[in-house]
Amino acid sequence: MHDLSHFRANFDQIAQRLSTRGNIPGLEQFRELDRKRRAALTEAEQLKAKANAEAANIGKLKKEGADTSALQESVRAMKTSMAALDEDVKALDGEFSELLQGIPNVPHESVPEGKGAEDNVEVRRAGEPRSFDFEPKAHWDLGPELGILDLERAAKITGARFALYWGMGAKLERALINFMLDVHTREHGYTEVLPPFMANSASLFGTGQLPKFKDDLFKCEGHDFWLIPTAEVPVTNIYRDETLEGAEMPIQLCAYTPCFRSEAGSYGRDVRGIIRVHQFQKVELVKFTRPEQSYEELDKLTGDAEDILRRLGLPFRTVVLCTGDMGFSSAKTYDIEVWLPGQNNYKEISSCSNFEAFQSRRAGIRFRGGKKSEYAHTLNGSGLAVGRTWVAIIENYQQKDGTVLVPEALRPYMNEEVIRPVKRNA
RNA sequence: GGAGAGGUGGCUGAGUGGUCGAAAGCAGCGGUUUGCUAAACCGUCGUACGGUCAAAAGCUGUACCGAGAGUUCGAAUCUCUCCCUCUCCGCCA
């Protein structure tokens, strides 16, 4: 969410930069709606001020023992018009905040302009895609053949776009979670947290999923609880409506959680395998920083995520998203894409963003710097998406005989060097 | 799920219908004093959104005492619903 007075004062300039994200509906109505809303507010407040003054007067006169029934009647008579004005304000206010809350963050000046994914700019490439002396398989073939991934039964238990892992498949997932958490806590200075996997509406509003993206979420019937789409939601909201100590920043947290996404509107995409599922696991990195340090911290956070891929020996590239491809709340985003030989392509495995004060204004996350408190900057990134890392390992480390080599770094967590096919009762 | 107690400013804590946005204390901030620290003393000290202003300051209005609705000329104070915390019971990993 934007700072209203700043947005109003710099409207033309901000609108200009926002337009590089694509068309933003309602932006052209902003000024007129803002004017109408303020006019209605002023009118309603003036009437209330009058009524309040009369009520105070009644109190004074009553103490003196005077008859106030005529005055009481006149205040009572103001009530209907007061209610009507309040209705106007409420309606305009609702319309206005819907508009304001629907305006995405302004891209940072370093973000390249562009329309979509094809305009993203590669900033780094690491590791060489391996050359196979056989036709590498995709994980949706390899997983079932190894007896470690069972999509049919997952569909029976729940439905399409769910996964059931068996044996070494389940263990690999668990090993990856532990490995990532260990690296981030021991080597990168993050504090591990284990948050609730459901969050309330206020939290989802704070990080920007609500109200605009509620169709992407799963809601618990009869409760104000939503399944989290990412650990970003509960972890960022740890400090909702709090004031942090500026001297203690940046605060760096990491968390493992499952993530739940309805994937509404992505019906045709990534239908095979477990690239896109309703429930997946992720280790998330979250930072709270002072404004002047947030971009340096974004680079570090992105590097922390890349470090996991380096340690696992997985080739990747990092791109900076262009204005047209960025998420709603982000001011700058790096995507890290891992090489998947089964698909002969790089595939997103981490997304690292600086939201500047966009989330903290919504969520009320401040810090005390000098005398005054100001809004913190919030950042987060996947470190990494565990399911997709699982896919990358299976596909990149597959061997001609159908087995999968366990990357060196994971062996202490797996107690095995090779994943071999196991017959399941099918 | 049942019964009871409670939710007031950064914190502690007063306030049961009429200058209460809210006493007092602590913390914070500005200052006086001081060789320095400490102490003492004086002052200041909530947020959001409006109006005034070129803008800021200032002045001023409205709203906010867990959330929402209601009663009343007037609500932190009364009524209802919900949420949260604590205690006991039940259930449960």
How would you describe this protein?
- The protein is elongated and about 100 Å long.
- The chain has 13 helices and 16 strands.
- The model has no long low-confidence stretch (mean pLDDT 93).
- With 426 residues, the protein is α+β, with helices and mostly antiparallel strands.
- The protein binds one RNA strand of 93 nucleotides through residues 4, 38, 41-42, 44-46, 48-49, 51-52, 54-60, 62-63, 68-69, 71-76, 78-79, 93, 224, 243, 371.
Helix content: 25-40%
Radius of gyration: 27 Å
Strand order of the largest sheet: 1-9-10-11-14-8-7-2
Task: Calculate the mean pLDDT score and round it.
Answer: 93
What would the principal axes of the Cα set say about the shape? elongated
- Write the H/E string, N to C: HHHHEHHHEEHEEHEEEHEEEHEEEHEHE
Please work out how many helical segments DSSP would assign: 13
- Which stretches are poorly predicted, pLDDT < 50 over at least 5 residues? none
Largest sheet: 8 strands, mixed
Number of DSSP-assigned strands: 16
> Could you tell me the strand content as a percent range?
15-25%
Distance between the termini: 52 Å
Give the structural class: alpha+beta
Keywords:
RNA-binding, alpha+beta, single chain, 39% helix, 426 residues, eight-stranded mixed β-sheet, 16 strands, 13 helices, three-stranded antiparallel β-sheet
List the SSEs and their pairings.
Blueprint: H1 4-9, H2 11-18, H3 30-63, H4 69-101, E1 121-126, H5 139-146, H6 151-157, H7 167-186, E2 191-193, E3 198-199, H8 201-207, E4 218-219, E5 226-227, H9 232-236, E6 242-245, E7 251-260, E8 279-289, H10 294-312, E9 316-320, E10 332-340, E11 345-354, H11 358-363, E12 365-368, E13 373-375, E14 377-385, H12 386-396, E15 404-405, H13 411-414, E16 418-419
Helix pairs in contact: 3-4, 7-12
This protein binds one RNA strand of 93 nucleotides through helix 3 and helix 4.
